[in-house]
Design goal:
Radius of gyration: 13 Å
Number of strands: 5
Largest sheet: 5 strands, mixed
Distance between the termini: 32 Å
Strand content: 25-35%
Shape: globular
Structural class: alpha+beta
CATH superfamily: RutC-like
CATH topology: 60s Ribosomal Protein L30, Chain: A
Helix content: 25-40%
Strand order of the largest sheet: 1-2-5-3-4
Number of domains: 1
Length: 114
């Protein structure tokens, strides 16, 4: 979508770019914020894996919502996608508008061998 990398690795840290609910064809999927979050977490897992990281390495997630009223449903889908016991630090903001009309965008930072 733009002039950026899906992730950059610096030493033992992976900085994954913000992900929206795009499938492998580049189409936005998910009828609601929770459904989009499921796709986003799958995308984050793929980006981390490609960079040699795992969900267990996550230390911070930043969630942007088009509407803060979606907080509870996004929170549930986000928590369900993480392995048991994995609870990185997190911030959540209402962004107002996101690329391609997405309802959710999530950026993640991971550190290997914490």
């Amino acid at each position: 979508m733009g002039p950026y990398s899906p992730a950059m690795v610096a030493g033992d840290t992976c900085y994954a770019s913000g992900q929206i609910a795009l499938d492998q064809t580049g189409s936005l999927v998910g009828d609601d914020a929770a459904g989009q979050t499921v796709q986003i977490m799958s995308n984050i897992g793929a980006v981390l894996s490609a960079a040699g990281f795992r969900f267990e390495d996550l230390v911070l997630a930043t969630i942007l919502l088009a509407d803060i009223a979606d907080f509870a449903s996004v929170n549930g889908a986000y928590a369900a996608a993480l392995p048991e016991g994995v609870r990185p630090a997190r911030v959540t903001y209402q962004a107002g508008a996101l690329p391609l009309g997405a309802l959710v965008e999530i950026q993640a930072t991971a550190v290997r061998a914490r």
